[in-house]
Design a protein that fits this description.
By secondary structure, the protein is mainly α. Helices cover 74% and strands 6% of the residues.
Amino acid sequence: MKSAMSRHQWLLLGIGITLILLLLLLPSDKSQTQVAPPTPQSQKIEALLALAASSRNEEPQKTLEYGEQALALLAQSPDAEAEVMALSNLAWAKMMLGQFTDAARLGEQALSVAETQTDQTLLVVPLNVTGLIYWRQSQLDKALTYYQRALTLAKELGKPSFEATTYINMGLIYSDKAEYQQALECFSKARDIHSGLGEERPLATALNNIAGIYAALGDFGEALANQQQALRIREQLDDRPGIAELHHNIGITYEHIGDLKAAKVQLQTGLAGFEALGDKTGMAQALNALGTVNQKQQQYDAAKTNMERALAYGEELNDGNITGEALLSLGKLHLAQGDPQKARRYLERGLAIADRLGLVALQAEGRLRLADYFLAVGLGDLALERANQALQQALASGDRSQLRDANALLAQIYERKGDFRQALASHKEFKSINDALFNSASQERLAWLRSSFEDEKRQRQIAQLERDKALQDEVIRQQRFTRNIWIVALVALAAILLLLYGRHSQARVNHALQRAILMQRNLMQAVAHEFRAPLARVQLAFDMLLEADAGERPQLEDRILKGLEELDELIREIVKLIKAEGSPRRAPAEGIELAPLLETLVARLQPLFPDKQVGLSNAGPELQIMASKKHFEWLINNLLSNALRYSREQVQIACSVEPGHISIVVDDDGPGVPEEERERIFEPFVRLDPSRTRATGGVGLGLAIARRLAENGRGHIEVSDSPLGGARFKLIWPR
């Protein structure tokens, strides 16, 4: 079960370091003596060490920065314990960055400082960190010496948790060395210690590792039993990394016993867990195992995809074990697909990594697969040589699964070579090992374990469904309550808004009514005032007509007619103003081309003012507006009439398109409008004295009507000085 072992290794490293950090919190010999109060310098060092420890896994570069700062302060204020921690953190960070030479040097330096102190607990961290660094470099024997020292120290200090953690680390090294019996002994001791201390999480780790050893020895029943026990503990702890790892390992066990369907389900569950955690090491191993299952199911494309992804992760992580396994798996796949040359390239690369790192189980697997290749291409002698090498390595490691596979292959090779006696001997050996692996008792135990495992899983699923249903019911109740609260709140808010809107609308109506009443009152006063003068003139002329002689009558009659005409014009303008005031705010609009409209209005007004010039510019055919044509003509006509009436010689009209609106500018060269009077000229019957009087024509309603019409169309009129010297009226109309 080699593919699971390196995964165990990385899982346990984190657990081991966690326990080491806990040990550092235990009182040392210093606690027995009076300690001086901390100084600002020592507090700063302590803070830097805490920052270095917290960032060394995720951000090792920061750990280097904090560690160097701490060492600089320690040069001024020596403290052996703090120096050991600083050097150990630096060593760890260098290891995480792949700088193993520097990491080992710093680890040894930390160990040297610790060895000069009487407090033995200072040795705990540097021994474990340095052992781990050599382990990562695959210097297994050297790493083992550090862990053996750590084990002796744990026993002397009476620290059972530390002792159990060290046993697990030693067991993993023995496993990498394929010394499975010694590994099993270490893991079993760790299991017993953790069980006695009631430490469930490390107990699950020990059970998982024991399962891996039993799988490597071919006892899949014991492997599955330990895995199931570990999984139950992990699920109780809601340990997601541990749960993913165990599903992965159970999947490999099912693959070994030939239940490929169950294996795939477990491996996919493990892969999903690793992906959720972002664990690339676990993902790589699960993908490689899934590839093996797919290959056995003859789903070669899926197998190739799985194995190539595993290889990519292995190379990214610079993990020789994962990379070597993926290469050997790809080689075996290409052999199955009938491509021996490509298979050989993968196999030789994978075996080279296994030889370089001294990974015994991987070395045996690589030589077995190369023997397959040589047999496939007809090189029987080379196949026999590689198979015998694999057999010897399997014998040395005690891996019964590899012993069985080696004897099966040797039987095929001898049969091809015509050495039937040796072929029969190898086949008998294969059958003997295979029967031992899968005897009736072990098969019955496996069947029972698988059945109980599936039954437990169904019970957990049912319990989980019941919990989910209860939770869902509670969520629905909460949602209903929240929904009702929202409905009540929204209804209340709507009622408040309607009330406020009603008040606002009523206020607007009241304001509009007051404005209309005021305007009507002002209009009536203005009308009465405007009617008084012409009526007085007409009445006076009538009185004089009654007493006049025949020679004076024509002149008086002419005065009466002019007065009546003036009254008639006044009445017509008042009617126009009333219509403008009462015209709808949104009169039906249509598209109007400005150029033809302006030309028509200019042609209509020009004969009434023959001594004045009217210029029209920038009114291109593309200029169009949306407006009521009748009201817009009326509006422009009033502006032009006003300009022509008060101009001296010329009036200029121009159009322009601006963001969001069109501007129509009417300039004249008349006397202009003083700035303080520019609002008053839009009031009814207002004429500016002395230049703008009744003598110039008009009754003073044209501009008032123009403003009303502009406002009704959502436009407005601005008054300013004209470049011609008079007034400029600018109509701004929305597009």
